Amino acid sequence: MEQTTGVERRSLLGDAISVSGAFEGSEDIAVARDLARSFLTDVQAVHGLPVSERAMGVVQLVVSELVTNARKYAPGPCLMTLEVNRGAVEVSVWDSNPTPPAILPPDPHRIGQHGLEIVMALGQSFAVHREPVGKRITTTIALADTSLADITGTPL
């Protein structure tokens, strides 16, 4: 049986609030989602920052997709960090495989392999960074919903 190696760390650094966890087993994907939900619940309850239901669900989905990919394609544990700053949460997942992920074009007939497509569609940003060992994939999700009326200043 695979065992979770993650130790939760929380810190308040200036305006940034963060949590990290290390995950080693396939069952840890659910643990990563739970950590994301718990963290965002605390962000709202303890720190008073608004977190929409949409943001809560999107962050859990993005965490699930990125941790699943790390567990599937890289040996050893992966490290997930969530950091809230300036009204958004940055989701970052490191794994030991230095090979950048294959980002496939949308194909409604393809079965599977839509995870990064989903992450890229839901995030405000998407980046793959090579690390001294492995790579880090990062995306940012807004904590509060913004409607078209909010952006344009015109009621719909």
Please give a structural write-up:
- With 156 residues, the chain is of the alpha+beta class.
- It has four helices and six strands; from the N terminus they run ββααββαββα.
- The protein has helices at residues 28-45, 53-73, 115-122, 148-152; strands spanning 9-13, 16-23, 78-85, 88-95, 125-130, 135-142.
- The protein has a six-stranded antiparallel β-sheet with strand order 1-2-3-4-6-5, with helices on one face.
- A hairpin with a 2-residue loop joins β1 and β2.
- α1 (28-45) runs antiparallel to α2 (53-73) and α2 (53-73) runs antiparallel to α3.
- It is globular, with a radius of gyration of 16 Å.
- 25% of the residues are buried.
- Mean pLDDT is 85; it is low at 1-5, 7-13 and 147-152.
Provide the gyration radius in Å: 16 Å
Overall pLDDT level: 85
Count of individual beta strands: 6
Low-confidence stretches: 1-5, 7-13, 147-152
State the order of secondary-structure elements, H for helix, E for strand.
EEHHEEHEEH
Give the N-to-C terminal Cα separation.
54 Å
Question: What would you call the shape?
Answer: globular
- How large is the count of helical segments? 4
